[in-house]
Design goal:
There is one protein chain. This protein is of the alpha+beta class. It contains four helices and seven strands; from the N terminus they run ααβββαββαββ. It has a single domain, classed as HIT-like (HIT family, subunit A). It has a seven-stranded antiparallel beta sheet, with helices on one face. Zinc ion binds next to loops. Zinc ion (ZN) binds next to loops.
């Protein structure tokens, strides 16, 4: 598979010393996150707090261990599942939180998803409303999708 080959290739690069790595990986902020910043580690993923909190009490990102830009659907599903699991713990202080589509991602070349609470006083609240997002309701245990310009009303039944 092309994706596997790619991730293997990049892995061997990112595993090398900084001096020997390619420019793309060497300057990638996600590849450079130190182990001390990692909150949780999974087989293929790492969870970390974002560098900029933008006024949120908690703001997380889950990213692939390898410097890959795109992933197959199964991997994306796995990432969302892990982020939802971790988020239910880290965002337990709030009713609702969301996972954002990467339309405003600052590192588009390394697959990741950001999640934060939905604090209306946060610096990026206006941007959040312009970002397609999956909203997780901790109290009701429901998921809903929200798109720019609409209210989060459509519940996406997630029963598997
Ligand atoms: Zn990277």
């Amino acid at each position: 598979m092309e994706i596997l080959a790619l991730s293997w290739d990049k892995h061997s690069i990112s595993g090398a010393t900084i001096a020997g790595s390619t420019q793309a990986v060497g300057f990638c902020p996600l590849c450079r996150i130190s182990q001390g910043e990692v909150l949780a580690e999974f087989q293929r993923w790492k969870l970390a707090r974002t560098k900029t909190m933008k006024g949120h009490r908690e703001r997380l990102m889950l990213f692939h261990k390898d410097h890959v830009k795109t992933l197959d659907e199964g991997s994306i599903g796995e990432a969302y599942l892990l982020l939802m699991k971790a988020g239910s713990k880290f965002f337990s202080y709030t009713d609702k939180w969301a996972i954002f589509e990467p339309v405003y991602a600052t590192v588009p070349d390394h697959w990741h998803r950001v999640a934060s609470d939905l604090d209306k006083n946060a610096e990026d609240h206006a941007q959040i409303l312009k970002t397609p997002r999956m909203i997780i309701d901790n109290c009701q245990g429901t998921l809903s999708r929200a798109y720019p310009g609409d209210e989060p009303v459509e519940p996406a039944a997630k029963s598997r």
